[in-house]
Design brief:
The structure is a homodimer of 334-residue chains. With 334 residues, chain A is of the alpha/beta class. Chain A is 35% helix and 16% strand.
Chain lengths: 334, 334
Amino acid sequence: MAIEHPYLLFLGDAPDQLAAKTAQGIAHWRPDWCVGQLRLEGCKADLGLPDLSLEAAREAGAKTLVIGVANRGGVFSEAWISVLEKAMLLGFDIAAGLHNRLVDVPLLKAAAEQHGCQLFDVRHPTREFEVASGSKRPGKRLLAVGTDCSVGKMYTTLAVEKEMLDRGMKADFRATGQTGILIAGQGVSIDAVVADFISGAVEYLSPANDDDHWDIVEGQGSLFHASFAGVSMGLLHGAQPDALILCHEPTRQHMRGLPDFNLPTLQACMEANLAAARLTNPDVRFVGIAVNTSQMHESAVEAYLRRLEADFELPTVDPFVEGVKPLVDRLQDA
Amino acid sequence: MAIEHPYLLFLGDAPDQLAAKTAQGIAHWRPDWCVGQLRLEGCKADLGLPDLSLEAAREAGAKTLVIGVANRGGVFSEAWISVLEKAMLLGFDIAAGLHNRLVDVPLLKAAAEQHGCQLFDVRHPTREFEVASGSKRPGKRLLAVGTDCSVGKMYTTLAVEKEMLDRGMKADFRATGQTGILIAGQGVSIDAVVADFISGAVEYLSPANDDDHWDIVEGQGSLFHASFAGVSMGLLHGAQPDALILCHEPTRQHMRGLPDFNLPTLQACMEANLAAARLTNPDVRFVGIAVNTSQMHESAVEAYLRRLEADFELPTVDPFVEGVKPLVDRLQDA
């Protein structure tokens, strides 16, 4: 499964900018792939891309209409369906990362068959995977792990891929969640895989490669999240990472969605991840810490980052603010 | 989903006794539920139960025909299908723990609908689960964990349930694999659940209960198995165990199916399980070690068990040989 680009980003009737954050991520990380945006009446989001009709976008080369916005109440409205049908009539494939599937809408499925278009429901794996072999495979791998969910793992790994490519290194971002898959054009929504095949799916996602090639694997969840740690564990074993980056959000009051659970200390989180990761790669090590400082008092940020850097002897950055150069430096030094 | 008993155990054309090990487990642990066995021509397995025709089994009260044997090559033969169809005509439900599903065989699905019978494909969850809440729930829980897969976790937990019931304690075996589900009549095949819901499925499987009630949760895999550790981790967090039993097979040369992976030390395995389990139950502790000694030299067994007992200060038994009384004693003492 590879989603063809260029994309036309569909923002629908997004009630605000936040509702279009998937589209925003795609536009940010793959600007060259995005010919424009398509907004319906009442849309309150704007990516700063040209507003294009379906026809104009096709003329500009767009191959896939990417739904970059949540559908309200999980329903595909008539307005959406008529746009998507017309898009397929014009030859677009359609890609979405929603909970409910495009292929479950009879009108859309019929239109896709009629016009020979593909519907990509990237949150739902469509292939079967093997059980993980655990065998070490050539190529190098970096994985982002977190103290919690939603602390910046996707952003950090995309920033590392970009920095590596800017330096002429061989690198591929390997997406494990729906937004990442739309950004990469391919990947596996790892939390939707059948439990027995979590690690096997990651081995498929990040196959053998050149010795000097880096797969930059998007992390998911946290070993310390009582709902999702199994996913994080399987991902860690399947990725066989040579390098880990710890992602953290210092103002988080409790684990996401679990008011009774405190965040682990960074020390405990690193130790647990190293211990588990050594099973499939004894040489694993941390190469840096990525902190999402957006909720911190600005005056406290610098001291906090420098303190972590000293405590753990690891480069520590907010990737959104200053990028990830020190992390890639450390990785190249090793 | 609860499978109704009594059962008639279908052994098909089992080429040897081992092929019928699922049926053997059911007959061993639930003798009162098994009215007899049904064997086709050429069957080389024998459970020592009365050979009954479908009609005779119905007269004896049997409600479910349980397929207790693997189907050769994963195919449902014509001989099997005609027996299963006739069983449904007579009012049997049918239960199986095979990789391929009964409901995927059109003739069987049609017969089930026609006669109002249920088809239980216990390896394949049919319901959706919630994401785990992590919230502590009343009741006590014991979980078997292992140094590897297939080291006796199901046998151990069933033996603990039996010992507790014999003592008049409140206890329920909670099945997480297909054979266990057929033995318990219900359960969740945890490795077949979508990854995001592993822990949530265990919370569903082992709900709130009386303060003095024990759920004895069947373990799966190992935190040290590179293919399946994610399942074991999610199971550990969802079960919130108060008590753990470590299961081990001392002659295992490498992790099952993974020739390049050594087994962990018992010490390392206990520490990793305790560390992970504390996330959802800080009071978790080991109450014993269960060793499968069947492959050991008989002369070495006793010394080995006593050495573990001394090293770890935990009662250590082969449940198959001597039962699990010392483990339940320890648990009651605590």
